[in-house]
Please model this.
Amino acid sequence: MDFYSYGRKSIFSDHSDSVDNQFRMCREWVNFHFPGEVDSFLEYSDEGFTGANTDRPDLQRMLADIKANSRIGCSQALVVYQLDRLSRDIRDFSNIYATLAEHDVKFISIKENIDTATPIGRAMMYIIMIFAQMERETIAARVSDNMIGLAKKGYWTGGKAPKGYVREPMVVNGKKHVKLALDPEGVEYMMWLADTFLNNKYSLKGMQNAFRKQGILTQGGCFFSTTQLYDLLTSPFGVEATPEVYDFFAAKGCQMDEDSPREKWDGSTGVLVYGRTTEINHKRQRQPPEKWKVYLGLQKPYISASKWLAIQNQFGKNKIDKKMKYDIPLLKGVLRCSCGSLMSVSRKKRKKGVSSWYYCERRMQRGPEACDREQIKIEKLDEKVLDIFRAIQKDRSVIYDFVKEDTQISSAPDTKQTASRVAACEAKIERLTASLALAEKSTAAKYIIAEMERLDLELQALKREHNFALSASRIHEAGVKTADAKAVEISKLIEGLDGFTAAERNEIVREVVKECTWDGKSLTLIL
Model:
């Protein structure tokens, strides 16, 4: 039977229950309850990662190993020291457990004495998980309430100050706080952007293109993107807090501070808006206005309400119809430049029709100094990929030319060799144990013990190497089957190519293609 043990600590330190201690207790539990049944004991650890999400490298590696091993019929179990080491979110845990159940993997949590082989064990597992999530959410709510309390008083509770301001420490009633103070250089920069946008009646795309043609760069030395321009031009912190600005946010459905009614918005201070973005899996994402919390700040404003509202109004005038005019290219969202940047699509109307091209976003943003890759016709690259698919349809073995090395037959590790080294080390320890019994009271005993301790450390390392070899071998076997399945999927794509829409063809390519890179001369495809 194959056992997996997962350990996690939110903070990297040498205190409290270390990951090694979690593994030791799991190993002892398994050896006691499954004597003679342990074929392998694989350890996976994420130290310095939160349990609030599943964006953890070794957790994902473990789940991939579980899926791979189940495809070749292995009997498996996952053992953790404590339930919240695996997850503190009921939804994430349910998804993980669904994966385990789908692949017939037994789940065991030592501290809570949970064994999912029984109905009561499964019920207790979910009850404990609910309390773990409630604890995490209670702590998060307490922190959020404290930040809201400070925001109501006009203090800055964020990190880096917005453009146009700097952080200014202050002490109130013996407590340290931070407020925003005007940064003259930043204010000048923000006012220049605002005037340029309004005076030229730009759209965001038009302003981006104009800046690129004029060679105007960000303060970081790159070309402006529409996202950067939008964030700067909609920044609410420097606008005068007037009744008109209050009405603007209230009309959007924002959560307005009850302690700062409309009549208090006299234009003497700036505005604080929290909740415009949130972090999901370490990525910042915009939130709808209904989740924004709006307060009066302590900072002085630098832009008039009329000018700021005119900018927001101009966004509404420049809205365009987002309906798709052209078919989605086969490699859209898949193709990358060899510099690592995603390649986007551009089109230009000509007398004979529309010419379509893939181009490097990094080159477009930063210029040819950042990437010298020129644009390439869409039809040329799409046809290259279709030729590969047609070849796979004719001969499915061709797919092995386009899969990663870890799924190739030649890359399978030699598990017999690692098992032999483990057995040889165990034999040495057994011989030394026998020698120690005969020489227990002799001076040689201390040397025998020292050698046994050294061999024990070597044995642990060899066992870990052997476990990794077993895991890699099973992943290799599963990878071969996965490659065959992809070959079948690609064959179906080619057979019904004319029956799919362009969007459907693009969706299928996204599913079967892992990597697709253009270096200006050749196309690299990994399935």
